[in-house]
Specification:
about 675 residues, mainly alpha
């Protein structure tokens, strides 16, 4: 018996599980650090080898093939059936729409030395339309804004820009709203169209221009087509979101009452998503205005051409005056469409006794507007804006004086700041990217993509790297990548500092958010002007402009992320004795990781688009290649390849950061 018990005790002792040693997980940051260390070691050994450097005037076989395709299309444009019955017809229709709107408000028609509707009629239409869809405050802003455009001496240029914007938005909405409704009603179609919308919104404005000129030639029609393609995705996406946001119970109630599918759409879904759809129209108008100004590169008339010519001649005063006109036009269009989206709700909440008189007053306003249109059509004084643009001359002179003063008195400070960033961050990182063997850079990017975004992001990165090599502009792509990465680091530093402040302080948010909203309204062209005055035509000008352009969106995303951290969590950390710095770094920022990743994603996309535009002011690299392709026929193929490289960089950035955001929030 004792022997049996002893055996049982030994058996039981043998069955007790041995203690398991904890497995230490390797963090992503450690893996990325290891990749960077290996990269640096190999860079020191292999520096300058297999870098795929290409001189500015050199072409690859792909570039020559693109040139041949361009020449072949030009030679057969009027004989090839595809162009005769498709592309040329589209160009003709768009050209007729643009010409009609231009002859209406901006360009002379036939024997008339002035447009059909002069400045007084346009101001009347703008004021009345703003009042009808918004309120009297917005109407006053619109009238003042358009009058200011004339005082600047830029009335015709502004109307040309408005004509292209209106034409592009009109055509874009004809198919964008139906597609948005379809995407809102059909899950399958929404899944199909979403990747295309993501790609279209990832691509910088520059990229749309080169391929479209291949099919539609240089001119206002190509500019309008590029604009409507670029501006359509916001309306499609936001309309679909509005349709899907209508409560299912409301739709089911309509169905139970016997409503048909069409009746449910027209009587329930569209009316209840009206405000969201108008917000989509607002975003489309803003995108169209930004694109129209950039389209000056392909001979689009208007304010963009004035800014472009001024930037190329380093005429800061003229560029500032025209840039200010673009800002004024953008603010007016934004405020009018924003007021239109909120008018019905504001009217319900308002207790203004004059609301009962709104319809009679609108009728009287329509009569006054008709009179103003007649006067501007009949009399020269009401058709041509009076004066010689004295306000514009004063603005140009003031901008030139400020530029001269800044260059004389601030050059020491600005040069020191520029040299510190350039020598401390940009040059070392650019050297690492451009002087490393291409396969080493590609392997490092793929490894980082896998670590941050997973296997699918790594595969996407590998495909993008391979195609970047095939474009023949690898070295220029790495230069653009270096500028984009440095600018994004600066954007995130600003975004975290101001975003945390806004997220923790309601007062700071109320003070800063209107300014950030206004900054996002301005087209990217405008940001180059003040920094051209401070830093001259250098790549650093593009980087600083990109930081200022991208920082507002990063700040707002981070602020919202910090604000969404549960108050109970912050209170618990405070009661545990944490100070402000510890709460921010140990609680709020870690819990807002998904917002930080999303801010990085948006910052990268915004920065890339602006860094490329910086090719106009000496940024070089891919932006210069695209601009040179428009101005020099023999470099067209290289410019087209550079546009493709920009798309590949954007796709690579977007996929990695989006995948990282999903993994962070999971």
């Amino acid at each position: 018996m004792t022997v049996v018990m002893e055996k049982a005790e030994k058996t039981g002792a043998a069955e007790e599980p041995a203690p398991v040693k904890p497995v230490r997980r390797v963090s992503r940051s450690m893996v990325i650090a290891a990749i960077l260390v290996v990269w640096l070691v190999l860079f020191a050994v292999l520096r300058g080898k297999q870098t795929l450097t290409l001189a500015a005037a050199d072409l690859t076989d792909l570039h020559r093939w693109f040139n041949d395709v361009n020449d072949s299309i030009g030679a057969n444009r009027n004989s090839n059936p595809l162009f005769l019955y498709f592309f040329n017809e589209i160009r003709l229709v768009i050209d007729n729409v643009v010409t009609f709107v231009q002859e209406l408000i901006s360009q002379p028609t036939g024997d008339r030395p002035v447009p059909q509707i002069g400045w007084l009629g346009v101001v009347g239409i703008v004021g009345f339309g703003s009042w009808a869809v918004g309120n009297w405050r917005v109407a006053l802003l619109a009238v003042a804004g358009f009058t200011f455009l004339g005082l600047q001496g830029l009335w015709q240029e502004s109307m040309d820009t408005l004509a292209l914007t209106v034409s592009a938005v009109f055509v874009a909405l004809l198919f964008a709203i139906p597609l948005g409704v379809w995407a809102g009603l059909s899950d399958r179609f929404n899944q199909i169209v979403t990747p295309f919308l993501d790609l279209m919104q990832t691509m910088p404005t520059f990229v749309y221009l080169a391929p479209l000129t291949l099919f539609f030639q240089i001119g206002p029609a190509s500019a309008t087509i590029a604009t409507l393609i670029y501006a359509a995705p916001p309306t499609i996406r936001i309309t679909a979101h509005g349709i899907r946001s209508v409560p299912h119970t409301t739709v089911e109630a309509a169905d139970s009452l016997g409503a048909t599918r069409r009746q449910s759409l027209t009587k329930v879904l569209l009316p209840m998503s009206k405000r969201t759809v108008v917000m989509g129209v607002n975003q489309t108008i803003m995108a169209a205005l930004a694109m129209v100004t950039i389209a000056a590169l392909i001979d689009a008339p208007g304010l963009g051409k004035t800014v472009l010519q001024a930037l190329q001649s380093l005429d800061v005063g003229t560029a500032f005056n025209a840039g200010l006109a673009i800002v004024v036009l953008a603010i007016v269009l934004d405020r009018v469409t924003t007021a239109a989206s909120t008018r019905a709700e504001s009217a319900r909440r308002s207790k203004n006794r004059f609301l009962a008189w709104r319809r009679p007053l609108l009728g009287a306003g329509a009569v006054v507007t008709a009179v103003l249109i007649y006067l501007s059509h009949t009399y020269l004084w009401a058709a041509e804006f009076p004066g010689e643009g004295g306000t514009g001359s004063a603005i140009r002179s003031g901008a030139d004086n400020v530029t001269t003063w800044a260059q004389d008195n601030l050059s020491g400070l600005t040069n020191a700041f520029r040299d510190a960033i350039t020598n401390g961050l940009l040059n070392p990182f650019q050297s690492l990217l451009t002087d490393s063997p291409w396969w080493l850079v590609g392997a490092a990017l793929i490894g980082i993509g896998v670590v941050l975004g997973g296997l699918r992001a790594g595969i996407t990165t590998a495909v993008c790297v391979g195609l970047l090599v095939a474009t023949g502009v690898w070295s220029d792509s790495m230069t653009t990548l270096a500028s984009t990465a440095v600018a994004t680091v600066l954007v995130m530093l600003l975004g975290i500092c101001f975003g945390v402040w806004m997220g923790r302080s309601a007062l700071a948010d109320r003070l800063l958010r209107p300014t950030l909203d206004a900054a996002q309204v301005m087209p990217p062209f405008v940001y180059l002007v003040p920094f051209l005055a401070l830093f001259g035509a250098t790549r650093f000008t593009a980087i600083v402009a990109a930081v200022v352009y991208a920082a507002p969106v990063a700040m707002k995303i981070i602020a919202d992320g910090v604000r969404n951290v549960p108050a109970t969590t912050v209170e618990a950390a405070t009661s545990a004795g944490c100070n402000t710095w510890q709460i921010i770094t140990k609680v709020q920022l870690p819990m807002a990781r998904s917002a930080l990743t999303l801010a990085t994603n948006q910052g990268l996309i915004y920065v890339l688009s602006m860094v490329v535009v910086g090719g106009l002011v000496g940024a070089g690299a891919l932006g210069y290649d695209v601009v040179a392709g428009f101005s020099q026929q023999q470099l067209y193929g290289k410019g087209l390849a550079a546009g493709l490289a920009i798309v590949l960089l954007g796709v690579m950035f977007d996929r990695i950061t989006q995948a990282a955001a999903r993994r962070t929030s999971a």
